[in-house]
Specification:
Layout: H1 5-10, H2 15-26, E1 36-39, H3 44-54, H4 57-61, E2 69-70, E3 73-77, H5 78-84, H6 92-100, H7 107-128, H8 133-142, H9 149-163, E4 172-173, H10 174-182, H11 193-206, H12 214-223, E5 226-227, E6 234-238, H13 247-254, E7 259-262, H14 263-268, E8 278-281, H15 284-292, E9 299-301, H16 308-319, E10 324-327, H17 332-345, E11 348-349, H18 354-360, H19 378-387, H20 396-403
Parallel strand pairs: 4-5, 8-9, 8-10, 10-11
Antiparallel strand pairs: 1-3, 2-3, 6-7, 6-9
């Protein structure tokens, strides 16, 4: 038989056959070794064409066929088909790739190559990170994708070069170290996977548990001469009085508007705070409202996060015996952050009680409440769920409660006391 292979390759009724053969070849089977293939979804037109090529007149008279239909699909003798088509087995791949529209990649060979690549990579890592056996074990347990070998090797090289220089006698910034050892100043940012691996490495060198709080992470790195960013993130202080004689004390006492302090301010030249109750809020707009109402209440704003600079301020207040109050948004994130501040620093919570949520519930926000954390006090949770909307600090009901003159007997405890951490 002389066949037009182009027409055969483009015949939609035969497309399922070529896909099955493509899968067999991609699995590592040689064309000459494939005796039969079973096609589960071969159309009737395809089966008829194959029978017209493969069945003899005698078989047709007896009702027999070389292309039988089985419960698994249509069974096709591939060697006989290639013979009828005058197609040598070593030309089958070209036909199938044209018919399917994508090249055949031998997955068996690829798997073997990938396994060998991983073996060589871990042998290399064992040499470069021999001083960090725990980190090496963690990297191995995490595994490696076939297309990530280059990135993993980059991480290994950067970690090896950086950690073998520790501790630095003259502190260097994390961004500078990342630039010099990985070519990217943000490569070892603590929130990235490489940054987390670096934290694990330094903790292993120090023989300490791996820290999770941002301020503890920075303290660990600082002990080894690595300065994580301590300038860009700030906490705002308003009407906070100080009794020390340092530069930050003077800034606080002379300010008429909120003062932005960064982590360097709070750790290198920390202020000595005067006896006062410090109210910490989540949103800068509350400080705007405090100025608008001419409030003299000492306040600080963490901008809705618990970063290293925020932990530094809260710890400073705790160490100096300054009573803390905390107020956050009445949504999932705000309630969880408030619970953390209360647990770690013993802060009392204000403007986060059920009565405030009930008052605000008459004109709630447009934002759906979402799931509440387990730390939320049941009565508060009931009121919020009844309204179905989050209550933010910009609401007048919250501002009125928050900026009213403080009376300690009115300070609420909307979350169950969990003790100091």
């Amino acid at each position: 038989m002389t066949a037009d292979l182009t027409l055969i390759a483009d015949d939609p009724d035969l497309a399922p056959l070529w896909r099955v053969i493509h899968d067999r070849l991609s699995a590592g089977n040689a064309p000459a070794d494939i005796a039969t293939v079973t096609v589960p979804d071969l159309p009737p037109g395809g089966a008829a064409a194959l029978r017209s090529w493969l069945d003899t007149p005698a078989q047709r008279r007896r009702g027999r066929t070389r292309v039988p239909h089985t419960p698994a699909g249509t069974k096709i003798p591939l060697r006989e088909l290639l013979a009828v088509l005058d197609l040598p087995p070593d030309h089958l791949q070209t036909l199938v790739e044209r018919a399917v529209g994508r090249p055949i990649v031998n997955r068996k060979n690829s798997r073997l190559q990938s396994a060998q690549l991983r073996l060589e990579l871990w042998e290399y890592a064992a040499t470069r990170l021999s001083h960090l056996p725990l980190l090496l074990a963690r990297l191995k347990s995490a595994g490696i994708e076939d297309d990530a070998a280059t990135q993993t090797r980059r991480l290994i090289d950067a970690l090896a070069a950086l950690t073998r220089e520790l501790p630095h006698q003259r502190p260097r910034t994390l961004a500078k170290l990342a630039h010099d050892h990985a070519g990217d100043p943000h490569y070892f940012d603590p929130a990235t996977l490489p940054g987390q691996r670096l934290i694990s490495a330094v903790a292993e060198l120090a023989g300490r548990p791996e820290p999770t709080r941002p301020d503890h992470i920075r303290a660990l790195l600082a002990d080894y001469g690595i300065i994580a960013d301590r300038l860009s993130a700030t906490v705002l202080l308003h009407q906070v009085r100080a009794i020390g004689n340092g530069p930050i004390d003077h800034r606080l006492n002379e300010a008429t508007t909120p003062v932005a302090l960064n982590l360097l301010d709070l750790t290198r030249t920390p202020p000595r705070l005067a006896p006062q109750t410090l109210t910490v809020v989540e949103n800068p707009s509350v400080l705007e409202a405090a100025m608008d109402r001419a409030s003299t209440q000492p306040m600080a704003c963490t901008s809705g996060q618990l970063r290293a600079v925020d932990h530094a301020l809260l710890q400073l207040a705790l160490d100096q015996g300054i009573p803390l109050r905390y107020a956050g948004d009445l949504d999932a994130a705000g309630i969880q952050i408030a619970a953390t501040v209360q647990q770690i620093y013993g802060a009392e919570l204000i403007a986060m009680e059920a009565a405030v949520a009930h008052t605000a519930g008459h004109t709630p926000s447009a934002v759906t409440l979402g799931a509440l954390p387990a730390a939320c006090e049941p009565e508060l949770a009931d009121v919020l769920r009844a309204g179905g909307r989050a209550v933010y600090q910009e609401h007048d009901a919250v501002l009125d409660r928050l900026l009213a003159p403080a009376r300690m007997d009115q300070v609420a405890h909307p979350f169950a006391q969990q003790g100091e951490g």
